[in-house]
């Protein structure tokens, strides 16, 4: 009996693995990742296993979604560690870990772009990022052809963009959003947390505390979005280590800034702690 998960490096190999699963009548779930896995990724794999009986985890640090001054070269990579975590969890069947040359054997001339959803929040400080994300996810959907794909709610804007891409382009794949996994003090699990110094790690929890303050204010009756935005900005700006990127209140799933807090909303924050740029959000429904 072969050890699970099976590591494949080429498009042909992963397609063959999926073909074999389908021949056995199995449903296929995809968990796209950039590797350096943590408990948040493992939660995606666990949910994928609940949704389907063949789970493919992709591990690919996608150069298209990194800007020229971002951390593509230094982004943490450790495939052996990732495989060990997945083996110990025992829920993934296939790990697809292609090279950049396998995914992009020639300069890519095709892009998938959703500018109306990408030009705000993280897209303001990371131009081109979500075009890179949508393009690589589109490629992965075509390569693997999953029945279901699981994405973390921590990347709330990304999740909204993928859901809209799937709807607009009629991908036959169901998208499942999985709740954010957090440290005991509330900090969202992230591969980029490895960049934090001990002091920065201590201060990074201001993002979670700010979101918690905002949600509590809303549940207590505050409906003025500007008051919530300003309160979030003030709290992050007051931290001596954090450097605010944004603090927003937007509607879901269209990511439009709101004047009045009601309906399905997302509280979204981003800030720099040293060289680490961290994001977080709360998504919930607010009665009028």
Which residues form runs of ≥5 with pLDDT under 50?
A: none
Helical content stands at: 25-40%
Quote the average pLDDT.
97
Biggest β-sheet: strands ordered side by side in the sheet: 1-4-3-2-5-6
Binding site for ATP: 34-41, 152-155, 181, 189-192
InterPro entries: Cyt_trans-like, Pantoate_ligase, Pantoate_ligase_C, Rossmann-like_a/b/a_fold
GO molecular function, one term: ligase activity
Active site: 41
What would your notes on this structure say?
With 288 residues, the chain is α/β, with parallel strands linked by helices. The chain has helices spanning 11-23, 39-51, 79-89, 100-103, 115-118, 122-125, 129-144, 156-168, 198-204, 206-219, 225-237; strands spanning 6-8, 28-33, 54-59, 94-96, 148-152, 174-178, 242-251, 263-273, 276-286. Strands 1-4-3-2-5-6 form a six-stranded parallel beta sheet, sandwiched between helices. A three-stranded antiparallel beta sheet has the order 7-8-9. A hairpin with a 2-residue loop joins β8 and β9 (276-286). α7 (129-144) packs across α8 (156-168) and α10 (206-219) runs antiparallel to α11. It starts with 5 loop residues before the first strand and ends with a strand. The active site is at 41 (proton donor). Beta-alanine binds at residue 65.
